[in-house]
Amino acid sequence: MSKSIDDQILIKVRKAKRGSLFFVSDFLHFGTAKAVGKALERMVEKGEVSRVARGIYARLETHEMFGTVYPTTEEIAKAVAKRDEARIIPTGVLAMNVLGLSTQIPLNVVYLTDGSARTIKLTNRTIKFKKTSPKNLATIGKISGLVMQALKAIGKDNVTGEEIKIVLKQLEKEEPYRLQHDIKLAPEWIRVIMRKALKSEEDA
User: Fold this and answer.
1) Backbone dihedral region of 131: left (phi > 0), alpha (psi from -120 to 50 degrees) or beta?
2) What is the pTM of this model?
3) What's the pLDDT score for residue 135?
4) Could you tell me the CA-to-CA distances from 168 to 93, 162, 200 in Å, in that order?
5) Which of 55-64, 75-84, 169-178 has the lowest mean pLDDT?
6) Is the separation of the CB atoms in 109 and 90 below 8 Å?
7) Strand (E) or helix (H) holding 185
8) Model pLDDT for residues 128-157, shown as the tens digit of each residue
9) Residues 144, 78: contact at Cβ < 8 Å?
10) d(CA 75, CA 21)
């Protein structure tokens, strides 16, 4: 006897490690989008999977001290980007937080993308994907790309000496050839700051 869509989805979900994220598109070989969506909703009602956001499901991890562990905004953003075969880069307060320029953990995060513009609403957070030009996603260094976005958020006239020190310390971790490539993509005032990191590499 052939297995139902629910059973086929459940088998695939149970094979995945805890914390894995799923989309309707992951199960379209089992049935139509409508049928898969209905099956996932039934599974949510039974507690077999959890609904993270509209169209996004998970096999959640559990921690003996903290209970259910929900995926981070970064994990969700990366999963969406992978599904859409899109590039993303954090902006604003999120980029600043990752680099240690801000202790603020934003509830509403914004990523630049070359994929579709959209907003994903979570329980108490939102993830916004903002369409941008290819140039803004052409950086090849993870740290240098973040630095550019963080400094743009702070602004030329507001950046402090202490913030520049933190940025330069972070850029020490970047591979020089990636930094050299990305400097060319930055506004001139940011280039001036980033070049100091290259100079310190040469002096080392």
Assistant:
1) beta
2) 0.84
3) 86
4) 18, 10, 9
5) 55-64
6) yes
7) none
8) 999 999 888 999 999 999 999 999 999 999
9) no
10) 9
Q: Is the pLDDT of residue 200 over 70?
A: no
> Tokens 């971790």 identify what position?
173
Instruction: Give the pair of three-digit tokens for residue 100.
Output: 């240690």
Query: Which residue's entry shows tokens 């005032």?
Result: 189
Q: Residue 201: CB partners within 8 Å, gap ≥ 6?
A: 172, 176, 179
Placement of tokens 């937080």 in the chain: 97
SS3 22: strand
Place of tokens 């509403």: 108
Cα separation, 123 vs 51, in Å, equals: 10
Q: Where are the beta strands (DSSP E) in the chain?
A: 21-23, 50-53, 56-58, 61-63, 67-69, 88-90, 108-113, 118-121, 126-131
Question: Domains in the chain, please, with CATH?
Answer: 7-68 (1.10.10), 73-203 (no CATH)
110-116: long-range contacts, CB 8 A cutoff, minimum separation 24:
111/77, 111/81, 112/88, 112/136, 112/137, 112/149, 113/81, 113/86, 113/87, 113/88, 113/137, 114/86, 114/87, 115/80, 115/81, 115/84, 115/85, 115/86, 115/87, 115/88, 116/84, 116/86
pLDDT in tens, 117-128: 999 998 888 999
